[in-house]
Amino acid sequence: MTRDESNETDGDTEVGERGDRIDRDDVSTRTDASDDSDTSERASAGETPSDEDPSESVPVENVPSEGGTAGDATGDGANVGDTGGAFEFGSRTRTETEVDLDVDEVLADEEDNTGLFDDLLSGEPIFENKEVLRPSYTPHELPHRTDQINKMATILVSALRGETPSNILIYGKTGTGKTASAKFVSQELESTSQKYDVPCEVEYINCEVTDTQYRVLAQLANKFIEKNKAVIDNRLSELRDLRSHAAENLDALAGTEFASVDDVADRIADLEGDREEIEEVPMTGWPTDRVYTTFFDAVDYHERVVVIMLDEIDKLVEKSGDDTLYNLSRMNSELENSRISIMGISNDLKFTDFLDPRVKSSLGEEEIVFPPYDANQLRDILQHRSDIAFKDDALTEDVIPLCAAFAAQEHGDARRALDLLRTAGELAERSQADLVEESHVRQAQDKIELDRVVEVVRTLPTQSKIVLFSIILLEKNGVHNVNTGEVFNIYKRLCEEIDADVLTQRRVTDLISELDMLGIVNAVVVSKGRYGRTKEISLSVPIDETEAVLLSDSRLGDIEDAQPFVQARFDN
Fold this sequence. Notes:
This protein has helices at residues 3-7, 96-112, 118-122, 146-156, 178-195, 213-248, 261-277, 288-299, 313-320, 323-330, 357-363, 375-389, 399-409, 414-430, 438-458, 462-476, 484-498, 505-517, 543-551, 559-571; strands spanning 29-30, 41-42, 69-71, 77-79, 86-89, 92-95, 168-172, 200-206, 304-311, 338-346, 366-370, 482-483, 521-527, 533-539. The protein is of the alpha/beta class. It folds into 3 domains: 3-110, no CATH class; 146-370, P-loop containing nucleotide triphosphate hydrolases (Rossmann fold, 3-Layer(aba) Sandwich); 460-571, Arc Repressor Mutant, subunit A (Orthogonal Bundle), CATH 1.10.10. β13 and β14 form a beta hairpin. One of its GO terms (biological process) is DNA replication. It comes from Halorarum halophilum.
């Protein structure tokens, strides 16, 4: 029976299945509700029904029954006596205890309804400023690099006099402070130029990412185009203010280059036209000579000295040759307003051996070498950064010395030391530890080493990957300390399976030596007596993780299907 059907009785209102009738005129209690038309009424059972429209009667719900009795689901009364009363919910009567239990359940549900990150945020953080441990951070102080910084400053100070500084080449292994020092000096140079109102700018290019002449020139061109637009916008704002003031009083033009308001308006129109004609260089699609011309015009737009910092400059030369460096180093002879100086940063001391002699002579006017840090210097650097990066007393006393010792083994790599300290802190924080301890540093060392291996393997050339996979297949099939001949046999079979060129055994031996230098394999030359000498090769990296990285390369996807074929060779 529907609610409407239950209400269509002789002026009576039926409640649930109990058959109780109530009269709206005899209601003794009215409960509050958000809507006046939706109220519950308390009534005595068996009273005379009202003559009012029965459709106005509503079911009694959530109301204590009078006299301590209430009907149950079957229509029988239930005397609750001293239990504190009962509450009717539709056709069922519920006790106060049951209602209290429901409230407790709701509150418990609300307590359980915590967000995914609430527990993680409840602990006390270990870090104060994690960013100071990242490679992108440029510190305000660089311990143990005073000599190199001072030498850079003495070369670049001529820019503050409006002169062209000599080109600089900066050498040093990874993590020796080359880029950080160069950026520090560059920031000081630009800050001082603003102080003395000298137009001097530094532009940074990472040649490991921007590794072609087109990309380098396009990125530089667009940077200067944006700066030129800003100069035009500032000038337009000044001229529009001048035109407005001059329209009210011509004396506003006194001491300016303009004789009338129309002259100001003409100048504004010219600048607006110039700005409209400026076109940014797309990242692809233009002839290189057009990109170069656009860059040339953009940099020569007004008077300034520009230092172009080319980080990982050897990657640019390796990928695209020395055309970019040749063009940049020859620009000053054609520029009218601006002057350019090049600051190249490289991990490879010998990369200039591949340069054209003319480029080499003009580019390497000044050279600065950054030696590796020793363990004590690394400890100073870590202590300086940790004071900013971590909360007070967040590190145990053995954390920094251990990080420094690990990094000193990696040719004094400060970047590695900082990365190790940051990772140790992150591991401690994830485990909700109160302190960063020695165990976290050792865990971080293992994690970073595995990450390094994965990255190195991922970026190997295809032929090197095939050679490495050959070694993995041999080891997985129980052949340890394999020799070059065994590797070459598997290598040939794999090349046939994926339709790759087969290199000579001598070239494969060279690739094994390169893998040895990268620390991926350990290759030891052993004598076989009258059979000559050979290399015994073993993996130096986790076999499963390395195999997974190799098979993630789509070009080597078919190698996985070749494994049963190679396995059969050992079974026969």
